[in-house]
UniProtKB/TrEMBL annotation:
Its main location: membrane. It is found in: Membrane. The keyword Transmembrane helix applies. GO terms for cellular component: membrane. Residues 29-204 form the TLC domain. This is TLC domain-containing protein. It is a multi-pass membrane protein. The chain crosses the membrane at residues 6-24, 36-55, 75-94, 158-179, 191-212. InterPro entries: TLC-dom, TLCD5.
């Protein structure tokens, strides 16, 4: 016999809180954000793998079956993610660690998952949104950890940034637009589920603008650094001796 949905969500919330507590104890020499980021990384990997299995293997396919009845596995994953988003929202509010945009993202995620669980439908597209949102999360956390360890300004940091931008653009913006079109074109999903999808996609575009600005700044910085090295090389070839610093 399955437990009621509120109890499953409460168990998920307690599980994420317990994991966070263990990380705080394990990494007591680090700050609280370090432990919270580890929880976020864990959820990102777990949610990406589970939602990918649901979408690509278990089904139904969200692009062709939006608004379909929820399956048991979909409900399990939604309860797991809902507990995480509740935990992370409370953590962000308590520590004032995030801005209004990220809080809005979490609130819309919580409302969307809750609505799908309450209705017993549309978990296919909600799981697809979770997949698109979480697939870039491990790279985002890796970027933060690299900065904390002083290893961000390296080849590894460049690789992480590159794949983060590519995945965000391709999945959250590209595939996200396709998913939103299928959601809006289908008569099955409720209007507020569609509205939630539009809001989530709009939030992704706000993030995308910030990412484009970051990518431009970093590209220009790399370009100027390359031009400087090129100028130094030409100077050495012209003068025939090493330039002293």
């Amino acid at each position: 016999m399955l437990f009621p949905l509120p109890l499953r969500v409460a168990c998920s919330l307690l599980a994420w809180l317990a994991l966070y507590t263990w990380f705080c104890h394990r990494y007591k020499h680090r700050n609280y954000e370090w432990s919270c980021r580890l929880v976020t990384l864990t959820h990102g990997i777990l949610a990406t793998c589970l939602s990918a299995y649901i979408g690509f293997i278990d089904g139904p396919w969200p692009l062709s079956h939006p608004g379909s009845p929820n399956t048991t596995l979909q409900v399990h994953v939604l309860c797991l993610s809902l507990g995480y988003f509740l935990f992370d929202l409370c953590w962000c509010v308590y520590f004032q660690a995030e801005g209004a945009l990220m809080l809005a993202h979490h609130l819309v995620s919580i409302l969307g998952i809750t609505a799908s669980l309450a209705l017993g439908e549309s978990a296919a597209e909600v799981n697809a949104v979770i997949f698109g949102s979480e697939i870039t999360n491990p790279l985002l956390q890796a970027r933060w950890f690299l900065k904390e360890m002083g290893c961000y300004h390296s080849f590894t940091g460049d690789v992480v940034d590159f794949f983060f931008v590519v995945l965000f653009t391709g999945v959250r913006i590209g595939v996200g637009a396709w998913l939103m079109y299928c959601e809006l074109a289908s008569p099955k999903p409720r209007w507020y589920i569609k509205l939630g999808g539009v809001i989530m996609y709009a939030v992704s575009w706000v993030f995308m603008v910030s990412i484009c600005r970051f990518a431009r700044r970093k590209s220009m910085k790399k370009y100027h650094a390359w031009r400087s090295r090129r100028t130094d090389e030409l100077y050495l070839k012209t003068n025939g001796h090493l330039k002293k610093h």
